[in-house]
Design goal:
198 residues, OB fold (Dihydrolipoamide Acetyltransferase, E2P), 5-stranded antiparallel beta sheet, 2 domains, elongated, 38% helix, 5 strands
């Protein structure tokens, strides 16, 4: 029986760990080098996948199940299609505090280029592209680069992970100190009351 509970505990820990990794992969910034081929503004009717879309732009009405969304169409170095959405994150999750989707759409429109004279752009984004779920990564930053071979290091993601690691270490240390100061003496007292050696 003990072996069975150990597997249940390990399974629960694995599920939580996979969930944390998925949230981290979705939320942390990533960089793709692409060529912008078009931009558009499309009216979207939200359904069961609305969880993956950002909240409405700051200052706009929040009622209703439809709103206009900016999209940026691009092509990667291998010729594969890449589509991004361009939404403000506002004060919501993830906390990128992006309020510049209209300005970013204008910049993206100015970076549109053809195959004969390509203008390569490093697109910093978060999120996933899923055709099945009809979700798109959200653009955070656009920056022209020299070519498709340029590798951009996502320092922002490293900084966020480093800050989270430091925060978790600090929390772990606080929990250890609290256990030593309060839980261990209380446990020892309880064991003495029950007549057991600690």
């Amino acid at each position: 029986m003990r072996l069975g509970w150990a597997w249940v505990r390990r399974g629960a820990i694995a599920v939580v760990l996979i969930g944390v990794l998925m949230v981290g992969h979705y939320t942390l910034p990533q960089v793709d080098v692409v060529r912008v081929v078009g931009t558009e503004n499309r009216r979207i009717e939200f359904g069961w996948n609305s969880f993956f879309w950002a909240s409405p732009d700051a200052g706009t009405a929040t009622l209703g199940a439809a709103r206009d969304i900016f999209f940026i169409q691009a092509v990667d170095a291998e010729g594969g299609a890449v589509v991004f959405r361009n939404e403000d994150t506002g004060w919501g999750w993830p906390p990128y505090f992006k309020f510049s989707s209209h300005d970013m759409q204008a910049i993206a429109s100015s970076l549109v280029s053809g195959a004969e004279a390509p203008q390569w752009v490093a697109v910093t984004h978060y999120g996933w592209r899923s055709e099945l779920l009809t979700i798109f990564p959200n653009v955070l930053k656009l920056a022209p680069v020299a070519g498709p071979e340029v590798r951009v290091i996502p320092w922002g993601g490293f900084a966020i992970l480093g800050g989270l690691a430091l925060g978790l270490l600090a929390l772990w240390r606080v929990l250890i100190l609290l256990r030593r100061a309060y839980v261990d003496p209380l446990w020892a007292r309880l064991m003495r009351l029950l007549g057991r050696d600690v």
